[in-house]
Amino acid sequence: MDIEDHETGLARVASAMAEPARSRMLCCLMDGCARTSTELAVVAGVGAPTASAHLQRMKRLGLVEVWVQGRHRYYRLANHDVAQALEALMVVANPATPRFVPSTPAPLRMARTCYDHLAGTLGVAWHDRLLAMAWIAPGADAIDYVLTDLGVRKVAELGMDSELSPRRRFAYPCMDWSMRRPHVGGALGAALLELGIRRGWLQRQLDSRALTVTNKGLRELESIFGITQLAVMPA
Q1: DSSP assignment letter at 52
Q2: Which of 60, 116, 151, 207 could form a disulfide with 190 if both were Cys (CB 3.0 to 4.6 A apart)?
Q3: Does residue 212 share a domain with residue 125?
Q4: Residue 231's pLDDT is what?
Q5: How far is it, in rounded angstroms, from Cα 126 to Cα 176?
Q6: How many Cβ atoms sit within 10 Å of the Cβ of residue 113?
Q7: Residue 191 falls inside a structural domain
Q8: What is the pLDDT of residue 49?
């Protein structure tokens, strides 16, 4: 594929994302859950036929995929690359002022899902503490992260090693659109989210990307990782 093909493809994808109804659908799917076209029509504020046309266009461009179960058809983001691109575009769409003051609703700002990994204040704090505690370190490419020898031992103690998929990018700094600082993306980021839910530190909120930080989460995140100054959000 030559540069002209890349430019044409970029224009098509950008055009698909630029339509407000389609962008609302894509942002809704950022929590990693699958939804029907009817549910996404409500989110987008359009009728069912219009929603179906939008979804078919995004499917052709590789932004969403369809999961068929019986007579039901569910839509979800096509892959991690789409989610990462959306998160990056949110940063570009809301450029920081010299003194950045987040306008994101408090529950989403505290802790939320970024497709299948953790974002928000907690996600950024976890990223910073893993680096400070030398569990992770920049890799040879200075872009991705690798586990240190200490990190390998520690994630095994927490039972996270079985959750780290070898079939995807391991760990990288994913720019957080509400904090404008990186949280941990990749297999490690997904494993941290699963750990938080499994240990009862985090609870999913109904039909929302927001996560509730529990009292147990406050105590154990501080004792294990040294993460402080978090607040429990109402469920």
Answers
A1: H
A2: 116
A3: yes
A4: 61
A5: 12
A6: 25
A7: yes
A8: 92
Structural domain range at position 45: 3-78
Q: What is the pLDDT of residue 102?
A: 52
Within 10 A of 150 (CB to CB), how many other CB atoms are there?
13
In terms of domains, do 121 and 192 share one?
A: yes
Residues 73 and 108 both lie in one domain:
no
Residues 149, 218, single domain; the answer is yes
pLDDT confidence of residue 232: 55
Q: For 10-28, b where at least 16 C-beta lie within 10 A, e where not — what string?
A: eeebeebbeeebbbbbbbb
Could you tell me the CA-to-CA distances from 233 to 30, 76, 121, 217, 228 in Å, in that order?
21, 27, 12, 11, 15
> Mean pLDDT per 10-residue run, the chain (235 residues)?
66 87 91 85 92 94 86 86 85 59 67 89 94 94 91 92 80 83 91 95 86 94 90 51
Residue 233: what are its φ and ψ, rounded to 5°?
A: -90, 145
pLDDT at position 95 is 57
Task: Give pTM, 2 decimals.
Answer: 0.64
* Rounded-to-integer distance, Cα 113 and Cα 120, Å: 8
Q: DSSP H helical segments within the chain, as ranges?
A: 3-18, 20-28, 37-44, 48-60, 80-93, 106-110, 120-132, 149-157, 186-198, 215-225
- Rounded to an integer, what distance in angstroms lies between the CA atom of residue 11 and that of residue 178? 26
| Angle, vertex CA 142, rays to CA 138 and CA 145, nearest 5 | 35
CATH of the domain at 73: 1.10.10.10
Number of structural domains in the chain:
2
Is residue 172 assigned to a domain? Answer: yes
Q: Which residues contact 16 (CB under 8 A, 6 or more apart)?
A: 22, 57, 58, 61, 63
